Amino acid sequence: MTLRPIVNTTFRKLQNIVGDSNCSRAKEDLACYAYDATARTYMPDAVLFPKNTEEVSGILNLADKYGFFVIPRGSGSGMTGGSLAVKGGAVIVMTRFNRILKIDKENLVAHVQAGVVTGHLHKAVEKVGLFYPPDPSSSEFSTIGGNLAECAGGPRAVKYGVTRDYVLGLEAVLPTGEIINTGVQTAKGVVGYDMTRLLIGSEGTLGIITSTILRLLPLPETVKTMMVIFDKMEIAAEMVSEIIRRHIIPRTIEYMDNASIRCAESYLKTGLPIEAEALLIIEVDGKKKEADIAIKELKSLCMSHGATRVETAKTKEEAANLWKVRKAISPALFQYGPDKINEDIVVPRNRIPDMVRKINALRAKTGLTMASFGHAGDGNIHFNIMLDKKNKEDLKKADAAVETLFDYTLELEGTISGEHGVGITKAPYIAKEIGPVELALMKKIKKVFDPKGILNPCKIFP
């Protein structure tokens, strides 16, 4: 559907809703909200900064009446283009929705606005002895609303699950401007369809989430972190499967291949073993005695199964430095090339060794710089190709490698997106995983929520 541009009279009506200072069409302001972590650029027609749900409702009412696109946005840290104004329109920036409304220690829930930075929520609940497990690598700047829209995961998902596992209820605004409340504030609730789960992971295509009720846990008494070095990537991959086979469930098992290790070391210079083929960061938590026993058992297991070195962090600072290395990989990879193709496949844990061998074969066949790292504990591999996209031959090889990777992922009974969503970058591949009947049903759901196609166009569906 072709919608109308935002003309002067419409823009003045938007100013009346959010105020002149929270509504702009200046090119320099539009440029700041024209891109996300994909580095793709699409200029919006306007950028808006609403402060409450009623203003979001007013904007969408206006869009429904006058026919212009609306694109919700948090911090713009998405990896698949979910917040890009592909067809122009108004970008609604949700960062003014930044209040933690309530932390209920008795019922272990938090009432949170969508623009709250995830890391800020972590710190706030931990101050009162509680714990919000989802921890995407972007947690220091990504927002709760963005995490919900993409169903973000993170390293702790192996033990604690992903964002959807902690969402009890939502407030959201539909493309028609109607405000809805879904879910409950209790641990149980089965009245009607689960609208909450439907909105989680919908990438801002069904409604704009304004606030949420999140489930919390008691803060673990102790956290123990260790680094394990391997001289063979396949051995490290097999080690992950062995840990799970032994019924040991760490809260994280992260891995880095040699390219990632070298890149992070040149970026941070922390003394990482650049000759190592693989590195695991393993973390356990719980009661102090239980955590001490688990970390000793893991150390013994790793050493008996081919690890060349195991180091346990003695202080919180040492543990933080290990995580600094892990979180630095993604930006550090640009030392290998000006452009990055970033995919986040997931395979069953016991098939990680197979996927590692496939990546090694692709690297050898194409001659391209490839780096893999990620959440090995739940089979989530972040696969990166670094290149200069101006080199058309390399780009062609990279695109073919991604297609091969996706096909093999599905052959291993995995999924082509673990936590980045579909957005625009994976939309061409969605039919590889989702059948025609299921895709048609999804499009019908979109039509029910958004009959005029106003909200976040061109996302998910090719």
Task: Name a few traits of the molecule.
7-stranded antiparallel sheet; single chain; 462 residues; 5-stranded antiparallel sheet; 15 helices; alpha+beta; Vanillyl-alcohol Oxidase, Chain A, domain 3; Uridine Diphospho-n-acetylenolpyruvylglucosamine Reductase, domain 3; globular; 36% helix
Write a short abstract of this structure:
With 462 residues, the chain is an alpha+beta fold. It contains 15 helices and 18 strands. Among the domains are: 119 residues, Uridine Diphospho-n-acetylenolpyruvylglucosamine Reductase, domain 3, CATH 3.30.465; 190 residues, FAD-linked oxidases, C-terminal domain (Vanillyl-alcohol Oxidase, Chain A, domain 3, 3-Layer(aba) Sandwich).
Describe the structure.
Strand 17 and strand 18 form a beta hairpin. With 462 residues, the chain is of the alpha+beta class. Strands 15-12-14-13-17-18-16 form a seven-stranded antiparallel beta sheet, with helices on both faces. Helix 1 (8-18) packs antiparallel against helix 3 and helix 8 (233-245) packs antiparallel against helix 12 (352-366). Among the domains are: 100-218, 2-Layer Sandwich (Uridine Diphospho-n-acetylenolpyruvylglucosamine Reductase, domain 3), CATH 3.30.465.10; 222-411, 3-Layer(aba) Sandwich (Vanillyl-alcohol Oxidase, Chain A, domain 3). It has helices at residues 8-18, 27-32, 53-66, 118-127, 144-150, 157-160, 195-199, 233-245, 258-268, 288-304, 316-332, 352-366, 392-411, 430-433, 436-449; strands at 23-24, 46-48, 70-73, 90-93, 100-104, 109-113, 130-131, 167-173, 179-183, 208-215, 217-218, 222-230, 252-257, 278-286, 309-312, 339-346, 369-375, 380-387. It contains 15 helices and 18 strands.
